[in-house]
Design a protein that fits this description.
This protein is of the alpha/beta class and about 160 residues long. It has a single domain, classed as Glutaredoxin (3-Layer(aba) Sandwich), CATH 3.40.30.10. Helix content is about 35%, strand content about 25%. The strands form two sheets. Strands 3-5-4-6-7 form a five-stranded mixed beta sheet. Strands 1-2 form a two-stranded antiparallel sheet. Strand 1 and strand 2 form a beta hairpin. It starts with a helix and ends with a helix. The model is unreliable at about 1-20 (pLDDT under 50). The protein binds zinc ion. Zinc ion binds near residues 26, 45 and 48. Zinc ion binds next to loops.
């Protein structure tokens, strides 16, 4: 009986079920690393141990797990048909590199995740919601440039 439980536990912790992780290229050494949606600590490069850009996709099923971190989370509520969302995407990519180990970027496709969309009141997109320990600390509606987003993120990092 206990053997069966061990086997189930090992299976659920090892796999992350395919799409439950993303690949991050280490900015320091170029190694490709698998970054899980949910993790207790911040991701590090397996090769050189530098902090990795932290950008994952989450949805209704795993958003709570994705937000369960001590670090600042920037949720991007977006959809593929939204032009401004497409403009913000590379900015968020750069922010995930700039704030590697400090900010976790979580992308949520509102079309596929209506509960998450309603939870964060994504009336128009892109809506960017910043959370700490699952609580909303700031929200920005509409596309913003990198400098504007940095200005909103920096004070939130100081008050941690
Ligand atoms: Zn590396």
């Amino acid at each position: 009986m206990s053997l069966a439980i061990v086997a189930i536990g090992a299976k659920s912790t090892s796999g992350y079920r395919g799409s439950m992780s993303s690949i991050a290229v280490c900015p320091s050494c170029g190694t490709k690393n698998r970054v899980p949606v949910a993790s207790s600590g911040r991701p590090q490069c397996a090769s050189c141990h530098q902090p990795l850009p932290w950008l994952v996709e989450a949805g209704d099923a795993d958003l709570d797990a994705a937000l369960n971190t001590d670090h600042l989370v920037l949720i991007d509520l977006w959809a593929p048909w939204c032009g401004p969302c497409t403009m913000v995407a590379p900015v968020l990519q750069r922010l995930s590199v700039r704030y590697a180990g400090k900010v976790k970027v979580v992308k949520v496709n509102v079309d596929h995740n209506p509960r998450s969309s309603a939870r964060f009141d994504a009336q128009s997109i892109p809506t960017l919601v910043m959370t700490r320990h699952g609580a909303v600390v700031d929200r920005i509606v509409g596309a913003q440039g990198e400098a504007a987003l940095v200005a909103r993120i920096e004070p939130l990092l100081v008050t941690r």
